[in-house]
Structures are given as C-alpha cells and as structure tokens.
Amino acid sequence: MSPLHLIEADPTAPESLLLMAELSTALEAITGDGGNASFDVADVRGPAACFVVARDAGGAAVGCGAFRPLEPGVAEIKRMYARHGTTGVGSAVLRYLEAEAAVLGYQALWLETRLVNRRAVDFYQARGYSRIANYGKYIGNPLAVCFEKQL
Fold first, then answer.
1. Cα–Cα distance between 73 and 24 in angstroms, integer?
2. Cα(53)–Cα(62) distance, rounded to whole angstroms?
3. What DSSP letter does each residue of 31-87 carry, written as one string?
4. Taking all residues of the chain, what is their mean pLDDT, rounded to a whole number?
5. In whole angstroms, how far apart are CA 18 and each of 30, 53, 61, 121?
6. What does the alpha-carbon distance between residue 88 and residue 103 come to, in Å, rounded to a whole number?
7. How confident is the model at residue 115 (pLDDT cuts 50, 70, 90)?
8. What pLDDT, in 10s, does the model give residues 2-36?
9. Mean per-residue pLDDT for 83-98?
10. What are phi and psi of 77, to 5 degrees?
C-alpha cells in the first residue's frame, strides 16, 4: 500500500463533498438510504469535532471520516468512507479519528450503521467496536445497529 496522508479538512471543500457524495451513493445501493438526513456538516466543525481526508501518495483524496460531539465524553463517528479499490484507507481514517478524539478528551466513540451493511458491521467489529443499544434517533429502528469503542 502506498503511504497515506491524513489531513484535517473543510467538510464543505469540493473534494470533501465529492467523497461524501460517493459514500451516499454507495449507502443508497446497500441500504436504500444515502444517510444524508443523519448528517449536518456544521456538526463536524469546531473545536470538539473533526473531519479528515485521506490522500494517497499522489495527493488524491481517497477517503474521509468525521466525528461530532454527542454527549459528555462521547463523540459519534460520521461519514466514514474509503474509495472502492483502496486498501487500508478506512482503517487509517478510523485510527486517526480515534486518536484525535482521545486527545480531545472523549472516553468513547459511538456510531450507527445498518445491519444489512455487513461490510461496515464486520469492519467495526474487527477494530474493537462492540454492539450497544441503539441510541438517539436510532432507538426502535430494527434496521440500525449501533457500536461503541472505549478510548
């Protein structure tokens, strides 16, 4: 794998928006929902939030991810995406977000994905995330599955 460079970025920059649009298209194909209603770009800006873009050795944007404050001590992972055909990008983005969240004082990261999205479910479980009761807007949604990782 060529070296990746992870850089905090503006979530409204053209490359950021393109990556998130690709994510929405992929999610729509898997789950029937692009996930846009669960994301507000303003949530991943500011001193308690983070939006990161992964770039390959040539400088091309190949993935992204973010977290936002959810409740005291807990941040929520949002808009995790690695461009199809890349290797190690999702893991690198997630490690970056975990490290940054710990630096900011968060004790845990939470996230939601859809049960039908087996690739995402397996990805998070393989990286130490444990299933938790659905939280917030996902309570009572049988299609949603929520995870947590203690930092």
1. 28
2. 8
3. HS--SGGG--GGGG-STT-EEEEEE-TT--EEEEEEEEEEETTEEEEEEEEE-TT-S
4. 94
5. 19, 11, 9, 24
6. 23
7. very high
8. 689 999 999 999 999 999 999 999 999 988 888 88
9. 95
10. -75, 135
d(CA 36, CA 20): 9
Q: Which domains does the chain have, with CATH numbers?
A: 5-150 (3.40.630.30)
The residue to which tokens 């873009």 are assigned: 53
- What are the structure tokens assigned to 28, written together? 């729509």
Distance CA 136, CA 15 (A): 30
| pLDDT at res. 39 | 87
DSSP 121: H
